[in-house]
Write a structure and sequence with these properties.
Length: 276
């Protein structure tokens, strides 16, 4: 893979990279399309990264569908699929980790200790192998995106980090995620409260509310009405640092994580201060 990528670069081609853990859906494919618009050669990876799962059972049952994923990527015109084995990425004796320290301890990182260490490490390894001109990540995983951007800046990586917007189900607004495949019908209905809750905050903002507490409350009320849904965290934060914000006086991110049964879902909504 390293050789293929190097040859493409040496021929002056622009290399775009879309890392995934497979279980591909429209969200991933939209990132591939974004990459195709800007690259001569697009490489996608499928690697269910054991290092970023803090629960063994979550890793075991993570949806895996490599052949279907390959077909979808071919249909989108991806040039190469990199699908390494865990033993290739983490051989015997592997002992080097990347930690984006402060950011990785907040919110998603506090709920899933070690998760962002696993993400940052595998992303750096993939970027090292491919050295693409740019890599594309989904905005649904907002804190992951912030962690990767921070790492790329801090470690002076020569890869531009791009992002693509969250893709939602047209009917119920649920953000597309590989984990949605694990929801049964009642679970799916419960999950639909998440985009409704985010919309409620957006409507409160449009109605003149700017302070964090009432915006969060508008969101919480919608979530509380869905008894199958258990809220993990809900916060209004700065999109880069993930520090809490007291109001939407500058661009802000409303982030949440919730469990529906044993399926954990995350989502977010960008909130912009209304024009004066
Ligand atoms: O977002 C994902 O699918 C994964 O966290 C990533 C970026 C491919 C790293 O394993």
């Amino acid at each position: 893979m390293r050789q293929i990528a190097r040859q493409a670069r040496n021929r002056g081609l622009r290399l775009g990279f879309v890392p995934t853990m497979g279980g591909l859906h429209e969200g991933h494919l939209s990132l591939v399309r974004l990459a195709k618009e800007q690259a001569d050669v697009v490489i996608a990876s499928v690697f269910v990264n054991p290092a970023q799962f803090n629960e063994e059972s979550d890793y075991e049952r993570y949806p895996r569908s490599l052949m279907r994923d390959a077909d979808l990527l071919i249909a989108e015109g991806v040039d190469y699929l990199f699908a390494p084995e865990p033993a290739e990425m983490y051989p015997e004796g592997f002992d080097s980790w990347v930690e984006v320290e402060r950011l990785s301890r907040k919110l998603e990182g506090a709920s899933r200790p070690g998760h962002f260490r696993g993400v940052a490490t595998v992303v750096l390894k993939l970027l090292q192998v491919l050295q693409p001109h740019f890599a594309v990540f989904g905005e649904k995983d907002a804190q992951q995106l912030a962690v990767i951007r921070r790492m790329a800046r801090d470690l002076m990586l020569d890869t531009e980090i791009l992002s693509g917007p969250t893709v939602r189900d047209e009917q119920d607004g649920v953000a597309l995620s590989s984990r949605n495949a694990l929801l049964d019908d009642p679970g799916r209905e419960a999950a639909a409260a998440i985009p409704r809750a985010l919309r409620a905050a957006g409507e409160a903002l449009a109605g003149g509310e700017r302070a964090a507490d009432p915006l969060l409350e508008a969101c919480r009320q919608v979530l509380a009405a869905e008894e199958r849904l258990e809220l993990d965290y809900l916060a209004l934060v700065d999109p880069e640092s993930f520090d809490p914000l007291e109001s939407v006086s500058r661009p802000a991110l409303l982030v949440l994580a919730a469990r529906v049964g044993d399926v954990r879902l995350i989502d977010n909504q960008r909130l912009e201060p209304p024009a004066e």
